[in-house]
Amino acid sequence: MGEEEIRNHVESLINLTKSSPANRTPEKSGGFLTIYYGFSGSALTLSVGDYDSEKRGKYHNFSLEKAYRLYADWWRNPEAVSSWQTRQPDLNRYGGAVLFSPSPLSNNINIVSFSGLSEHADEAVSLALGRFYIPFPQTEGLVKAVVSASNNQIFRDISMKISQD
């Protein structure tokens, strides 16, 4: 999967989030995507869509912070699956990153993180993208756990649209 394919997929997911009745900021249409490959320590970070250029650094940094924080959380607690679980808005720590791993003992840890939309829309984009590109047998259980933890109605809405297509 190339960067343009990923970028195009994320843009289509952002457009789906905009049509969710639960999205309180449908005017937002871009930000930064980070795919963090845990054990290798490498990350792919892409600017996606349209956003206020003055917020470029903020969205970039938040996307990375969410991914790195989730990875650190996972080391302390292998049950950690979402940056929502350790969100602290007063400290600029938000939801929007999801960990995809075949098992707690796997060396194939991937974290998908997005920043630039609302927290729930960020998480919905990360979940939908990871579900598509990083499938493994436990994916649906992970998705349910993440959506339950954050009560993410935006993801529920876009999942219905994706399954209808």
Features:
165 residues, 5 helices, 4-stranded antiparallel beta sheet, single chain, Beta-Lactamase, alpha+beta
Explained architecture:
By secondary structure, this protein is an alpha+beta fold. It has a single domain, classed as Beta-Lactamase, CATH 3.30.450. The protein has 5 helices and 4 strands; from the N terminus they run αββαββααα. Strands 2-1-4-3 form a 4-stranded antiparallel sheet, with helices on both faces. The longest helix has 21 residues. It is globular, with a radius of gyration of 14 Å. The model has no long low-confidence stretch (mean pLDDT 91).
End-to-end separation in angstroms reads 21 Å
Number of strands: 4
CATH architecture type: 2-Layer Sandwich
Q: In this structure, how is the largest beta sheet organized?
A: 4 strands, antiparallel
Cα shape: globular
CATH class assignment: Alpha Beta
Can you tell me the residue ranges where pLDDT is under 50 for at least 5 consecutive residues?
Answer: none
Structural class: alpha+beta
Going across the major beta sheet, what is the strand order? Answer: 2-1-4-3
Mean pLDDT: 91
Give the percentage of residues in beta strands. 15-25%
